[in-house]
């Protein structure tokens, strides 16, 4: 059997650490840790050139790459621990350094002589090679913490740290200082609380205020550099010759606008919580209020294309996320049946306080691309952005035309044009903000909020005579989703593909006015620029509330008598299912969406800021969560 | 201070003259961006906007060019062209700054002339990019002036130092043209006298700069300034019109063995070098640097099917994209109508039907008449430079046994289901199209260099300038030079075919074309520069939008007759620019969008 392509990818990962701890006089102890992480990935990719149509590759090709990255960690901590009567102090000071190194090589050859993973050069072969070595990654941190408690009733704690990242930020901006304080009070241990103890077994009040830093962006963005030019199509524009079949000259240019003032993003959080348990520890309860402010958020700001550059990494403004988390649970035994049922709910509200640090008063993001790598020619909504992030609004609010239903007759529609195209019966009615009868970019408004108001979960655990059952439900209420896939499902695009949903559109075949906007023009022909489906509008904004059985596990633990005869301490057999069913009114595949294509993330941002401005956008390239069934056996020797 | 280990620090680059050359190379290589001459601009955008093509492809972004009323500010090709043209401007600004850096830090004094040549090339290309930007996006040609129709495009005369510098408002039309003209003057001065060796013949010269300057003056209606500059190019550049045979070859670029033929010829003033070598990748999407384009994928000719029928016609690239608009055949003066297929009297029934042994062929009477039309010049011969006629012309591709063989050109298979199929011409593209093999057999790479400026363009601009300066005799003379060359005659000797006046009948008069039928200036510019991405600019500056829509009447992807709205004389400023640039708001958008 001929294989038309073959990939082999191997990844090796090693993580290890050793530590030594020595007790010193004066209640001190010293611990040093040394850690080493090693990652290596090798890939061989052979692509044959079997002919399967006009887009077949003309030549075969082999690509081999090897990546190695290592990290060494040095950590030194000095601890002081002393108890004096009812006072207890634990203080700690330390230093940590992380060195990272990266080495990779990527080689390709076209028109190789033998199919497989070896480079066999022929006269037609063209080679390409790339790779880099960078041992410069360096992060240094100094930190200290003091914990104090009195009589195990009153707790007080403070900490401070200074982090320095030497490759991500430029000179003068590398260090960030972050601190926190917290306090706790075991109310249930107080003398005045004794009479309540039988009812409320434990009650603790705690609060904290602290800050953290984030530096999760690609390195060296504070410097201007020359590198090989890539047009929008990529490396093919990285060279040019000046006579037929002449040698190619490399094309280099400055491809990024540097930002020497890039600095740490800081997250400040205030937290007040109450933990309690009652009724002989059967009932447990936690309530927590938080207010988190992110200042100088690291973001890849889109630059105007007229500048010749695409993105600019910078620190932006202030964002606030605050809310309330609740947990309530009850666990008990009813005869041989044990149970533990808990409910958790989180209410959250997020808002952009200001977009300080940039001159733009709004940031746009999100695209409804069919294929994230192809911005033109194959997309229902062109290069339209879907979300806006602006002072006073929640992050990544949906932004487009507001639709108020469908026109019933042509007379009703006579007063509306969309981007110059006259509307008819069966077209969406758009709210005309500037009243000029033509719906254009000036008539866009906020049409949805992808940040959920309430996130909740239900956790049920049961056990009976060796059987155990665990169920985890997840749910979300009060959230909007932008169903970009619907545009591709209800309208034929490019080569005429669509789904059977098109038969439900207004005035299609024998249909009259339905709930779907018209697809065909009044004379029955297809107009590829139908404004109902190629603009960002609220017809695609849906309620994304859902309740999902996220995880169900049923297991049985075998009795020890049988097993001890074969030296097994215990054995548990279980079946598990993930994402078993979802209750929702959302018409797309899965309302539990990550973030979709974001020009911000495509520039290299990782970590918590990934896709922060494209939440809740359902696009063709996103996969739904998979349903997984697992069977397992745990054995303890 | 640490920096990336795989990039050059601006504190120490360019260090050598080769480094400086790399910086200016980026100004040229950007021309082959997928949204410019690499893939989209000529076949998808310009060919449909001027109705050279009658596309079968219904994507919304495409339809915006067949039917300009459907262009909106989030059109992917409009956004891509804006982005790629401004990336070119940025590359030129980087090259200029690199030249200054090199001169003050590392250059030897003897290198000054060479550094000035680099500067000259960068100024020329910056002017070229701004010329394209202003003509496409500026409000220059939008009629009915109001207080807001003086906006051009944002000007960047250097690399932005801070991100605020990266956000510029639209400049006035006059400021942009002043920049273009002063850049071209500087380029002409810096490149004065330089004749490049054969290894560098694609680089810009003072004559390219002067030709573009003359063009800019004509577009700005400054005819008194234009005429002397254009005459200087005509008299002193050493360029001359090629004979018809070479002229016809120069739009294919290679001979049957793949060798370059008639490239960098006697009439080329500025040309983009394109080699048929994708370096192991897929045209402009290969992962390695190359010197190719893939326009041929979009406007391939169609060959007769392996079974000898038109229904199974084989495109030499992607099928169902561009098709040669029938009205163009008529406009060049072809008046023989369409043909029927009749039984092939030479059909050999003992062998299976194939492209070399078809059961049905073109009516031989019609075939004879068509051949006669070529030899007795009743049709403008340039029709046969830009297009190929089914059954009379041939293209080469692999037959079902894998052998390269010449097949007759055929009408595209997707026409078969049309109700009016009998009236459809279905000719194939020839200018810049692949004829010796299918695109995927050659790596997916075009072979033909793309003319960006040539002497015929200068002759026509000089004719236009002379006419407006009151010198009709000179105007008529230069129009006739172009016409004589087209008909295979010596351009400098009067002939019986000459136009007698500036309102004489042209080949388009045969189809009663109300605009080109009796306007030799407009006709010659249309016919000579057909499908080179020029006619759109002429349509806009002469305000022919409505009459062109009326002449072409219908295209496949737009129902009803073509409509025209004057807002289409300028493309919309892309919404992506407005969204990311606080200095350009929806209020600064071109009128009507």
UniProtKB/TrEMBL annotation, chain B:
<comment type="similarity">
    <text>Belongs to the SusD family.</text>
</comment>
<keyword id="KW-0732">Signal</keyword>
<dbReference type="InterPro" id="IPR033985">
    <property type="entry name" value="SusD-like_N"/>
</dbReference>
<keyword id="KW-0472">Membrane</keyword>
<protein>
    <submittedName>
        <fullName>RagB/SusD family nutrient uptake outer membrane protein</fullName>
    </submittedName>
</protein>
<keyword id="KW-0998">Cell outer membrane</keyword>
<dbReference type="Pfam" id="PF07980">
    <property type="entry name" value="SusD_RagB"/>
</dbReference>
<feature type="domain" description="RagB/SusD">
    <location>
        <begin position="364"/>
        <end position="593"/>
    </location>
</feature>
<dbReference type="InterPro" id="IPR011990">
    <property type="entry name" value="TPR-like_helical_dom_sf"/>
</dbReference>
<dbReference type="GO" id="GO:0009279">
    <property type="term" value="C:cell outer membrane"/>
</dbReference>
<dbReference type="Pfam" id="PF14322">
    <property type="entry name" value="SusD-like_3"/>
</dbReference>
<feature type="domain" description="SusD-like N-terminal">
    <location>
        <begin position="70"/>
        <end position="217"/>
    </location>
</feature>
<dbReference type="InterPro" id="IPR012944">
    <property type="entry name" value="SusD_RagB_dom"/>
</dbReference>
């Amino acid at each position: 059997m001929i294989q038309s392509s073959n990939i082999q990818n191997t990844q090796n990962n090693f993580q290890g650490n050793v530590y030594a701890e020595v007790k010193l006089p004066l209640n001190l102890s010293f611990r040093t840790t040394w850690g080493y992480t090693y990652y290596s990935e090798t890939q061989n990719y052979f692509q044959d050139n079997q002919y399967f149509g006009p887009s077949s590759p003309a030549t075969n090709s082999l690509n081999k790459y090897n990546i190695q990255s290592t990290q060494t960690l040095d950590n030194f901590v000095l601890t002081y621990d002393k108890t004096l009567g009812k006072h207890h102090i634990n203080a700690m000071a330390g230093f940590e350094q992380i060195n990272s190194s990266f080495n990779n090589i990527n080689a390709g050859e076209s028109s190789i002589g033998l199919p497989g993973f070896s480079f066999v050069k022929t006269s037609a072969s063209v080679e390409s090679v790339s790779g880099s070595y960078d041992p410069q990654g360096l992060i240094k941190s100094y930190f200290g913490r003091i914990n104090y408690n009195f009589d195990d009733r009153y707790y007080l704690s403070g900490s401070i740290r200074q982090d320095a990242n030497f490759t991500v930020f430029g000179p003068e901006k590398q260090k960030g200082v972050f601190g926190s304080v917290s306090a706790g009070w075991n109310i249930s241990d107080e003398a005045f609380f004794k009479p309540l103890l039988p009812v409320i077994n434990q009650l603790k009040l705690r609060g904290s205020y602290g800050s953290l830093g984030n530096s999760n962006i690609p390195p060296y963005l504070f410097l201007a550099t020359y590198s090989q030019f890539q047009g929008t199509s990529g490396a093919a524009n990285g060279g040019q010759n000046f006579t037929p079949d002449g040698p190619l000259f490399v094309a280099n240019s400055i491809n990024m606008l540097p930002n020497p003032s890039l600095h740490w993003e800081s997250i400040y959080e205030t937290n007040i919580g109450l933990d309690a348990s009652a009724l002989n520890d059967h009932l447990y309860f936690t309530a927590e209020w938080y207010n988190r402010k992110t200042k100088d958020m690291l973001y890849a700001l889109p630059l105007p294309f007229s500048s010749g550059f695409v993105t600019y990494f910078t620190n932006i403004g202030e964002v606030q996320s605050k809310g309330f988390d609740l947990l309530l649970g009850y666990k008990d035994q009813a005869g041989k049946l044990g149970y533990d049922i808990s409910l958790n709910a989180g209410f959250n509200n997020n808002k952009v306080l200001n977009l300080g640090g940039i001159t733009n008063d709004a940031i746009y993001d999100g695209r409804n691309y069919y294929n994230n790598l192809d911005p033109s020619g194959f997309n229902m909504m062109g290069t339209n952005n879907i979300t806006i992030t602006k002072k006073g609004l929640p992050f990544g609010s949906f932004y487009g035309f507001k639709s108020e239903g469908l026109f019933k007759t042509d007379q009703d529609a006579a007063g509306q044009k969309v981007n110059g195209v006259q509307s008819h019966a069966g077209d969406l009615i758009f709210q005309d903000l500037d009243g000029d009868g033509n719906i254009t970019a000036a008539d866009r408004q906020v049409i949805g909020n992808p940040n959920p108001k309430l996130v909740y979960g239900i956790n049920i655990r049961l056990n009976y005579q060796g059987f155990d059952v665990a169920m985890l439900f997840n749910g979300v209420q009060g959230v909007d989703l932008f169903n970009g896939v619907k545009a591709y499902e209800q309208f034929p695009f490019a080569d005429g593909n669509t789904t059977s949903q098109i038969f439900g559109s207004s005035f299609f075949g024998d249909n009259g006015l339905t709930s779907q906007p018209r697809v065909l023009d009044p004379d029955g022909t297809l107009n590829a620029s139908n404004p109902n489906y190629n603009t960002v509008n609220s017809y695609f904004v849906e309620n994304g509330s859902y309740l999902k059985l996220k995880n169900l596990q049923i297991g049985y633990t075998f009795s020890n008598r049988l097993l001890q005869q074969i030296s097994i301490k215990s054995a548990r057999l279980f079946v598990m299912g993930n994402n078993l069913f979802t209750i929702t009114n959302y018409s797309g595949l899965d309302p539990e969406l990550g973030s979709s294509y974001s020009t911000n993330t495509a520039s290299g941002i990782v970590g918590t800021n990934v896709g922060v401005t494209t939440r809740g956008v359902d696009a063709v390239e996103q996969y739904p969560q998979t349903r997984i069934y697992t069977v397992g056996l745990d054995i303890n020797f | 201070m640490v920096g990336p280990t795989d990039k050059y620090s601006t504190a120490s680059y360019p260090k050598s003259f080769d480094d400086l050359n790399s910086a200016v190379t980026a100004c040229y290589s950007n021309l082959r961006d997928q949204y410019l001459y690499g893939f989209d601009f000529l076949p998808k955008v310009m060919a449909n906007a001027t109705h050279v093509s009658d596309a079968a492809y219904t994507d919304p972004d495409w339809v915006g060019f067949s039917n300009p009323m459907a262009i909106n500010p989030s059109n992917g090709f409009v956004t891509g062209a804006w982005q790629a043209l401004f990336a070119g401007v940025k590359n030129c600004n980087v090259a200029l700054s690199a030249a200054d850096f090199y001169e003050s830090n590392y250059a030897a004094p003897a290198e000054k002339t060479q550094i000035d040549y680099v500067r000259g090339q960068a100024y020329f290309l910056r002017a070229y990019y701004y010329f394209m930007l202003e003509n496409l996006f500026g409000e220059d040609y939008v009629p009915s002036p109001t207080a807001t129709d003086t906006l051009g495009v944002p000007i960047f005369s250097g690399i932005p130092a801070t991100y605020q510098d990266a956000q510029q408002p639209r400049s006035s039309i006059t400021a942009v043209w002043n920049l273009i003209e002063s850049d071209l003057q500087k380029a002409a001065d810096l490149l004065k006298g330089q004749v490049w060796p054969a290894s560098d013949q694609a680089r810009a010269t003072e004559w390219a700069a002067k030709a573009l300057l003359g063009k800019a003056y004509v577009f700005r209606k400054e005819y008194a300034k234009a005429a002397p500059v254009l005459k200087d190019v005509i008299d002193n550049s050493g360029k001359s019109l090629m004979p018809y045979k070479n002229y016809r070859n120069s739009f294919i670029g290679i001979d049957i063995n793949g060798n370059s033929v008639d490239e960098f010829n006697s009439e080329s003033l500025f040309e983009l070098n394109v080699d048929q070598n994708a370096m192991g990748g897929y045209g402009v999407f290969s992962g390695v640097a190359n010197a190719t384009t893939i326009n041929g994928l979009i406007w391939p000719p169609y060959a007769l099917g392996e079974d000898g029928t038109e229904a199974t016609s084989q495109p030499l690239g992607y099928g169902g994209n561009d098709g040669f608009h029938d009205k163009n055949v008529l406009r060049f003066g072809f008046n023989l109508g369409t043909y029927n297929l009749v039984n092939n009297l030479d059909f050999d029934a003992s062998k299976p039907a194939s492209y070399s042994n078809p059961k049905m062929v073109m009516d031989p009477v019609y075939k004879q008449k068509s051949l006669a039309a070529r030899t007795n010049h009743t049709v403008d011969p340039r029709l046969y430079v830009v297009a190929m006629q089914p059954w009379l012309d041939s293209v080469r591709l692999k037959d079902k046994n894998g052998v390269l063989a010449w097949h007759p050109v055929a009408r595209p298979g997707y026409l078969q289901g049309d109700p009016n199929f009998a009236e459809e011409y279905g000719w194939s593209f020839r200018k810049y199209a692949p004829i010796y093999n299918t695109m995927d057999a050659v790596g997916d790479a075009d072979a033909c260099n793309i003319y960006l400026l040539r002497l015929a363009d200068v002759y026509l601009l000089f004719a236009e300038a002379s006419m407006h300066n009151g010198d009709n005799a000179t105007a008529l003379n230069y129009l006739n030079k172009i016409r004589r060359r087209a008909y295979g005659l010596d351009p400098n000797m009067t002939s019986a075919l000459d136009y007698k006046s500036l309102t004489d009948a042209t080949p388009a008069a045969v189809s009663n074309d109300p605009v080109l039928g009796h306007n030799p200036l407009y006709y010659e510019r249309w016919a000579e520069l057909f499908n080179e991405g020029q006619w759109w600019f002429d349509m806009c500056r002469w305000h022919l939008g409505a009459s062109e829509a009326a002449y072409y009447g219908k295209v496949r992807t737009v129902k009803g007759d073509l409509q025209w709205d004057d807002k289409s004389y300028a493309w919309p400023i892309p919404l992506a620019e407005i969204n990311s640039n606080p200095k350009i708001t929806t209020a600064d958008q071109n009128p009507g969008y």
